Amino acid sequence: MPRLLPKSLLGQSLLAIAVTLLIGQAVSGLLLYRAVEERRDTASANAAAFHLLRTASRDEGSVRAIRRALRRREADSPFGLGRQSRGSGRHLPPPVSGTLADASPLLPGEERDPAAEGRLREILARQGIVADELQVTLRPIESDPLLAEIAQVRPRFRARMADTQGDLLVAAMRQPGEERWIVARTVRPPVESGALLLIAGQTVLLFLVLLGGTYLVLRRITRPLARLTRRVESFARTQHAGEPLPPEGPEDVSRLIAAHNMLESRIASLLDEKDVMLGAIGHDLKTPLSALRVRIESVSDETQRARMAETIEDLRRSLDDILSLARIGRAKDPPEAVQLSALVASVVEEFEDMGKPVAIAHSERLVAPAQVTWLRRALRNLIGNALRYGEAAQVSLAREGDMAVIAVEDEGPGIPPEEMAAMLEPFRRGEASRNRDTGGAGLGLTITRAIMREHGGELLLSNRAERGLRAEMRLPLAR
Fold first, then answer.
1. 365-385 pLDDT tens trace
2. 98 and 150 share a domain?
3. Pairwise CA distance, residues 452 & 447, whole Å
4. 358-362 vs 393-400, strand pairing mode
5. Domain's final residue, options 327, 345, 376
């Protein structure tokens, strides 16, 4: 499920607002629906109150009297429901809608409607009518005994009842000092489908309008942020500043873009100054080192001359490592698709030509975008470390998901787990056995890690179960 959720700021904001609007519109639609129901129930209560008041002085409520009244009204309506119901089917004829009864009209098992009773009592009270007892219930039209008895002898009435939709609201009132009940019957129709469609249409329309307006506002905010994100990612990858981004969007966003432009320009200037400074340092240091290398040839003591030459060579290698570490990420050429198996084989062949015990344990044909020169340097560093501390190296190339894994394994002493992270820091050599006599300035792993980060990968170190160290260069494959 989390994979289906949007990841962008625009998508997540729209989703949150859409859910909020949907809930709000659903609540609003429910309230509107309840208002329609309330209006319908009030109309039904008013109709029942009207029939109760109209029948209060009437002394005829038998079925025979109702039949006579219906026969008199057949001339006005062939359906036998009177003028009130013509074309509507929602009203009962007056002789049926208001009757007198000797007992309560509630049927066994029927439940009273307290809300309807309270509504009806309030309406009667406004008319000055006080009911000693009031009962209201809802029942299906076909289950009413009075209407069913009439429908048995009057087919047209029965057909009209079958076409009538809704429930029958039955209200019974007994006034103080009276034994007989005044009974009102009125049809409570269902909520009209037109009202439901109107509520649903209004809800959907408001939802779409609000969501569309929100999208336009969020788009104005997130579009410059998206451009700024792409620019930061590009600068982090290439360290080359381009044309300043035009400040746009809300004031806060435009100020952020302007601040980024100044910061990017300043960082680019510092990087350029660093390159110039390192180039000058390299030139100024390598020149006297070369002169010293020439001068030591006049030293007659061969042992002293060898030590001096080794010291000078060590300084030269350290200087090259420092300059290399500083230049990583400032390559001018873009990455190119590299056949990793061929690159690994060529680097291993270089060590084999020098008589070093390096072998390829496993290799797959994989292609990844890379800076070939830097990737060769990283692999040489790992193989050199394996030979220096483990006396032999095994190289493998395999695929794990969307990553290419170049692993170099040795059979040396490994690295204590608590020092594993520290070994990736500059000028760290590990335990005492890793001294300067073995060569290097402690920058090999640091340079390799920097190269991997430049390629969007990582360098992982782990001790092998049997013995030795396993160093992995993990590179994203070409897509």
1. 999 998 888 888 889 889 988
2. yes
3. 9
4. parallel
5. 327
CB 428 within 8 A of CB 399: no
Helix (H) or strand (E) holding 50: helix 9-55
Extract the tokens encoding 474: 């993990």
Mapped onto helix, strand or coil, the DSSP state of residue 368 is strand
In degrees and rounded to multiples of 5, residue 121 shows phi and psi of: -60, -35
- Contact, 428 vs 422, CB < 8 A? yes
CA distances from 405 to 348, 366, 368, 463, 476 (A): 16, 10, 11, 16, 9
**Mean pLDDT, to the nearest integer, of 90-112?**
82
Instruction: State how many domains the chain has.
Output: 3
3-state secondary structure of 31: helix
DSSP calls for 196-237: HHHHHHHHHHHHHHHHHHHHHHHHHHHHHHHHHHHHHHHHHH
pTM (whole model) above 0.70: no
C-alpha 431/C-alpha 180 separation (Å) is: 109
Structure tokens that stand for 287 in this block: 């020149």
Q: Helices 155-163 and 145-153 meet at what angle, rounded to 10?
A: 130
How many other CB atoms are found less than 10 A from the CB of residue 53? 17
- Residue entry with tokens 């193989």: 383
Reference 182, options 135, 120, 114; nearest CA is 135
Could you tell me where the DSSP H helices lie in 328-399? 340-353, 372-390
For residues 84 and 182, state if they share a domain.
yes
One-letter amino acid at 57 equals: S
With CA atoms as reference, report the closest residue to 322 among 441, 435, 450: 441
Would you say 441 and 321 are in contact if contact means Cβ atoms under 8 Å apart? yes
Same domain? For 49 and 187 the reply is: yes
Domain extent at residue 388: 333-476
| Contacts of residue 56, Cβ cutoff 8 Å, sequence gap at least 6 | 129, 175, 182
User: What gap in Å lies between CA 84 and CA 133, rounded to an integer?
Assistant: 29
Half-sphere exposure of 180 (CA within 13 A, CB side): 15
Within 10 angstroms of residue 108's Cβ, the number of other Cβ atoms is 4
User: How does pLDDT run across 392-449, given as a tens digit for each residue?
Assistant: 899 999 999 999 999 999 988 888 888 888 787 766 665 444 444 444 556 778 888 8
